[in-house]
């Protein structure tokens, strides 16, 4: 391995370690994850994943920020979230093999690490702690969605 590849691998390991998803994983185990993580670069406004496409990977934002939106019918989109360095997206479709539930675009120059579904499953088998962290992320997002649903139902009830 040449010196530039070593720096790239080290950079990926450091980026993974900063993420809550991989924070509890040992550096030696992160090396295996970093090895299979593909680094992708996006310009502002560039599409990263599209709603209803087949999901085949988890993405971790190394730097920059992204916008998560969902089609709401009649040409409308709803902003679901803004995400920054250390956060991940795409994990649902990568695990359940369903279509992507939202569209993700770069808000600014962004670098993301892409971990394919097969590599992610291998990592989860070898590192159950990452699975627990994924569950925490799912629960946090579900609670946020429940709060939004509750707020919308209260708003529509007041309008009746």
Secondary-structure blueprint:
Layout: H1 3-18, H2 27-36, E1 38-42, E2 47-49, E3 57-63, E4 65-71, E5 77-84, E6 88-89, H3 91-96, E7 103-106, E8 110-116, H4 117-126, H5 128-158
Antiparallel strand pairs: 1-8, 2-7, 3-6, 3-8, 4-5, 4-7
Helix pairs in contact: 1-2, 4-5
CATH uppermost class: Mainly Beta
Which fold name is given in CATH as the topology?
Jelly Rolls
Superfamily (CATH H level) name? Jelly Rolls
Helix content: 40-55%
Strand order of the largest sheet: 1-8-3-6
N-to-C terminal Cα separation, in Å? 66 Å
| Structural shape | globular
Indicate the structural class.
alpha+beta
Q: What integer value in Å does the Rg equal?
A: 17 Å
Supply the key terms.
160 residues, alpha+beta, Jelly Rolls, four-stranded antiparallel beta sheet, 5 helices, 46% helix, 27% strand, globular
